[in-house]
Write a structure and sequence with these properties.
alpha/beta; 6-stranded parallel β-sheet; 3-stranded antiparallel β-sheet; binds 2'-O-acetyl adenosine-5-diphosphoribose
Length: 242
């Protein structure tokens, strides 16, 4: 694995040559926008770890508690702006040379202008009907009364994937298509601790394609080139925009 002063130019050359790139992002890409990551200090709320809150069981036991956590995350994200890494990906996405898959639910890629985002873990900005599972886009930041769906008038839940739940089938299909044809993978700001998302890098690499990582910290992901730099610094340097 190359983690050296020449790593940025090596990464840039691979990305310039790529015609079917898969980009996988995690919470680290939004860190410089001010959104807390999960496995850092921001992973706790009212003394509970996110792993206790992001489960169907937690929601069934106390929907108000779980909704309040998600509403607070909405308010945090609302006050943040996309950073230079989100913007570089938005410019690259206009070239039509690959697929962006994100584990993030914050919507910052969309706000930066990337239209075709594969949302692997759902969206903070969608409510899902507890009856028919239809989702609606919302901008709500407070719920004095817990929300009910306009379709079935049933209680709604956040439109995100919780621990123990399946990845949305559309996201799985888009990911399989993207991975099957990929000639490189760029993984940005993820600890690689959560599957199946973490398996995307190995899946692309198994066909001989190069994997490039941007993360200031070491991770357990196996890659060919690692840039130990923050995303907002590294991504605009290495990703082509034309
Ligand atoms: P984590 O919080 O596990 O990891 C964030 C990663 O970002 C770490 O490896 C940091 O080193 C890195 N990082 C921090 N600052 C960075 C920066 N400025 N630039 C680049 N990288 C930086 O977040 P994820 O890997 O995204 O799932 O977590 C995966 C999933 O776990 C999330 O999608 C969420 C959570 O459970 C669901 O909600 C289903």
């Amino acid at each position: 694995m190359a983690d050296s002063p020449t790593a940025p130019s090596l990464a840039a050359a691979v990305l310039r040559a790529s015609r079917r790139l898969v980009i996988l992002t995690g919470a680290g890409i939004s860190a410089e926008s001010g959104v807390p990551t999960f496995r850092g200090a921001g992973g706790y709320w009212r003394n509970r770890s996110f792993m206790e809150l992001a489960t169907p069981e937690a929601f069934a036991a106390d929907p108000r508690l779980v909704w309040d956590w998600y509403l607070e995350r909405r308010r945090t994200v609302r006050a943040c702006e996309p950073n230079a890494a989100h913007r570089a990906i938005a410019a690259w996405s206009q070239l039509g040379r690959g697929t962006l898959i994100t584990q993030n639910v914050d919507g910052l890629h969309e706000r930066a202008g990337t239209s075709a985002v594969v949302r692997f873990h759902g969206s903070l900005w969608h409510n899902r009907c507890g009856e028919c599972r239809e989702e609606r886009l919302v901008a709500d930041l407070e719920y004095p009364e817990l929300p009910r769906s306009p379709c079935c008038h049933a209680p709604e839940r956040p439109g995100v994937v919780w621990f123990g739940e399946a990845i949305p089938s559309e996201a799985v299909k888009s990911t399989e298509l993207a991975v099957a044809g990929a000639d490189a993978v760029l993984v940005i700001g993820t600890s690689g601790a959560v599957y199946p998302a973490a398996g995307i890098v190995a899946a692309v690499r198994s066909s001989g394609a190069k994997a490039i990582e941007v993360n200031p910290e070491d991770t357990s992901l196996e890659v060919d080139v690692a840039l130990r730099m923050p995303a907002a610094e590294a991504v605009p340097r290495i990703l082509p925009s034309r």
